[in-house]
Design brief:
Blueprint: E1 4-8, E2 12-16, E3 20-26, E4 31-36, E5 41-44, H1 49-56, H2 61-69, E6 75-76
Antiparallel strand pairs: 1-2, 2-3, 3-4, 4-5, 5-6
């Protein structure tokens, strides 16, 4: 499924994806938050803007997320 940005309210980008509901990226701190459709929200630190761009520009956000983030440490925030 091609992922589409459905709404951007400034800091949160809502996605149409089988796996991911929304993402947030803070350029100043390089913190990246992902909210999954099942409800969990995780924060990743020291994420480059280009990595976020690769994720959002991919054909499958879920598959690309797994490739880019599966080996990174995350903190569950919700």
């Amino acid at each position: 499924m091609k992922t589409k940005t459905t709404k951007n309210n400034g800091s949160t980008i809502f996605l149409t994806s089988d796996a991911i509901s929304s993402v947030q990226y803070d350029r100043a701190t390089k913190n990246f938050r992902v909210t999954f459709n099942y409800g969990g929200t995780y924060q990743y630190e020291d994420i480059s803007e280009s990595t976020v761009g690769r994720l959002l520009g991919s054909e499958s956000v879920g598959a690309t997320f797994n490739t880019l983030f599966s080996k990174r440490q995350a903190k569950k925030v919700r």
